[in-house]
Every structure is written in C-alpha cells, then in structure tokens.
Fold each of these.
Amino acid sequence: MSTVVLITGGNRGLGRAYVEAILKGLKASTYKIIITARNADAAKAAAKELNETQVAGYGCDIENEGQVDELVKAIEKEYGRVDILINNAGTFPRPTWLTTGAAYDGQAQKGEMTPKEAWTKSYSLNVTCTHFFTEAFVPLLLKSESPSIIFVSSRVGSITSQVNKGIPMMDSAPEAGWPKAPGFNPTAYRSSKAAFNMMAREWYRTLLNDGVKCYILAMSGYATEFGGGPAAEKAAMGMPGPEVAGEWVRGFVDGEHEGEEGRFMALDGEHGW
Ligand SMILES: NC(=O)c1ccc[n+]([C@@H]2O[C@H](COP(=O)([O-])OP(=O)(O)OC[C@H]3O[C@@H](n4cnc5c(N)ncnc54)[C@H](OP(=O)(O)O)[C@@H]3O)[C@@H](O)[C@H]2O)c1
C-alpha cells in the first residue's frame, strides 16, 4: 500500500523541491504524491515532469472553499485517504533589494495594494485558509494508519528571533521620524507566520490524541520565485537552492524526525518560537 502525500503548492519552488527529494530517497517507490497549484494545467504539467506514474497534479486555490471541497472529494475517490499533508502553499513578500516581482508587503510598498490589503491577503493565505484547508483534510488523514502534517513556517515569523535581532536587516529599529523610510519591512508576512505557528501548534494539540504527528518547520531563505522575482536573482545573493530544503523535508516524510513533533524545528536544530 502506497503512502499518500499531499503537498499544497508543489508545482514550483520549495514544494517542487520536496517532491524531487522524496523521489530520490530510499523510500521513493512507496509514495503516491499529489501536488496542487492554483492552475490545474500547471499542476498537471509539473506532475508529468516530476514522475508521471507517482505524482498527480490538481488545481486548487486554497483560498477558494469550493475548490478545496472538490479536491477533498477527488482525493477521497482516487486514494481514499491522505497519510502526509504538507501545508506549503504560502507567500513571502518581495524584498525591496530585488528588482522584479512583488507580493503583499512588497506590493503595498509599491502602491499596488493598500497596506491593509497586504495584511488581509497575508493572513488569508498563510493563516486562515491554511487552517481551513487542514480542517477539510482531517477526515482523510484520520483514515491513515500513520498520519502526519508538516507545516511550512518561516524563521522570520519567530518572535524570539526578532527580540534577539536574529536578522539585523529586518530586526533593527529604524531611524526616528515619521513616516519611516521605505525599506524591507515585511511586517504583515512575519506577523502572519507568527500566527501560523500558533495555528500549527493548535493542530498539534487538537490532533495529539488522534495520533496525528504535526511538524512545524522554521524555513530559512532559499532561492525560489517567492514574491514573484526570479530564483536566479536570489541565488546570486548567496541564498541556497531549494534542493537543500527539499532534502530536509524528505527526512520528515520518510519518518526520520521522530521526537520533533510540535516543536519549531530549523535545519540546524530547534528554533525559538
Ligand atoms: N523560499 C524561502 O526563502 C522561504 C522562506 C521561509 C518560508 N517559506 C515558505 O515556504 C513556502 C513555499 O515558498 P516558496 O519559496 O516555494 O514560494 P513560491 O516559489 O512563491 O511558491 C509558492 C507556492 O505556493 C502556491 N500558492 C500560492 N498561493 C496559493 C493559493 N492561494 N492556493 C494554492 N497554492 C498557492 C504557488 O502555486 P501557484 O503556482 O498556483 O502560484 C506555489 O506553488 C511558503 O509557505 C513560504 O512562506 C519560504
């Protein structure tokens, strides 16, 4: 019996890197992997490129309740259950030092959406809709003999890190005066990922006695298309490639991280909340 893995946002970026790593692992042949993207054709094309027999692509905007319901029905019909859910779909704002792309905080700084819209969008995608997507899949997870959920969070959502000025560029206090000079100021994003952490911990608590293992990952910076800019631009700044995160996440999928459930784990060990 195959292990059914569902990855939101698995067509590109980190999500795709998890699939590539899982398919190179020792347990590769044991998996059926479902990836989603907002565009069904993009999801199906990625699945075909990755591995036609083991990967299937579905269209699903996790912010669209109707599409989430349809996905639950389709997966139930085809696979009957989900063993591992990876809540990966999300966004990261475009840092202002990059020349292209923009998402949420970045778009607000460019005047493409209001700051309030940036906050609302960040919370909707990263917190509210990830929560309700998870809820929609609980019945299928509970049909698994060994269910787990992997929540992809971010180091910049760590309050401990902000207090300790873990990322000086983001965590240092700006010059006095109002309004503040524009700069890389992803307040909506990092607030949403801090809320994401509590949402994930709540799932850990809620499903603990149901045997669902919940892992919460403090992802650091990887050269993907996050925020809309090209990956190459971020790679040129020295960010590692997504394959590094892919191999780390593969370990969770393959069951190599027993004991890390409910903790905020980074690649180099436990991270402060
Ligand atoms: N890369 C980093 O440095 C970094 C650091 C910390 C945390 N993270 C987190 O890692 C996760 C993946 O980031 P990434 O770097 O791979 O970003 P990315 O390259 O921008 O990819 C984002 C993925 O999420 C999907 N997505 C976005 N909005 C969606 C929606 N409403 N419904 C369904 N899918 C949606 C995208 O699918 P479409 O093709 O349909 O747009 C895409 O597959 C995010 O949660 C991000 O916050 C990334």
Note: The CA atoms of residues 98 and 229 lie 7 Å apart.
Amino acid sequence: MSPEVKTGIVAFGITAGGASLLGFIVLGVAAPKIALATLAILLCVLFVLGSVGGLIALIVSITGIGTECPECGKKWAKVIVRSKIVEQKKCYGLVSRSAYSRSSGSISGTTSHSGSVDHCSISGTTHSSGSTSWEERVPVIRTTYLMYYKCKYCYAKWTEEKVKEVEDFDIERE
Ligand SMILES: [Zn+2]
C-alpha cells in the first residue's frame, strides 16, 4: 500500500468518522428536541381537546337540564308528543327594562280586562345593578300550554304546563 492510499484511507476515515460523529451529535441533540416538540404539540392537542371536550360536556350537561324523564331519570329522554293551548288571554304587564344588556326583565302586575281583575302571574326577576332601569306598561299575551311528553327510553308519559308571556304588539291597533 502506497503512503498516498494510506493517507487517503486515514483521511477518509477521519472525514467519515467526523461526519458520522457530527451526525450522531446532531441526531442526539435534535432527537430530544423533536421528542419535546412532539410532546408539547401532543400536550397542546390534549389540552385543547380536553378544554373543548370539557366545554362540550358542560354545554351538553346544561342543555340536558329539564330533559330528564321523571320515571327513569335519564337525560334527553323528553320528547314532545303534542302541545295544546289551554288558555290564552291578554294582560297588561309591567316590563322592567334596564340599560344593561345583561339584565333580565320581569313581567308583573294586574290587569283589568272586561270588568274583572285578573292577576297575571308574577314571574321572573330583575337583575339590575344600579343602572338606568324603567318600567313599561305593555300589553302581553299570556298563553298557557299543556305539553305532552314521553320518554324515549321507558315510554313514560307526562304533561307539563308552560306559560309564555309575549308582548302583544297588535293590541294597540284594536
Ligand atoms: Zn324514562
């Protein structure tokens, strides 16, 4: 073997060795970084999924309120079979209004309609925190519905009364 070849092999060896060593170092440094990044991404994904899942679970559990079956207690069991209007009458109600968008008004008061004094149900609460609030006397239509429900799991049947009070905008024209 000529010294040139020897030198060449040594040079090759050094270069190759150096390159592979450098490669190993790069790999060794980069690999945990990749793993860490992957872990971070996974954690982020899990966190997001967890939050979204939690939020969905919260929303679902909120929407599930009032849908329980009185027999078996399962949620989202309530199915409307039919509804019928039991009573519908016109009342004048006081509606509390407030400048805050958060506040909820309440309808209360009495009405004298065709001689007799009917008491409208005083329902709802006012949430106002020192904001400008005022009361308005508005005509309302109070409708009582009888709702027929059934459970989609155990086929239990029950009824519930629902009262809806809506502002009557047509009454002015009468
Ligand atoms: Zn049921």
Note: The pocket of zinc ion is lined by residues 69, 71-72, 74, 77, 151, 153-154, 156 (CB under 6 Å).
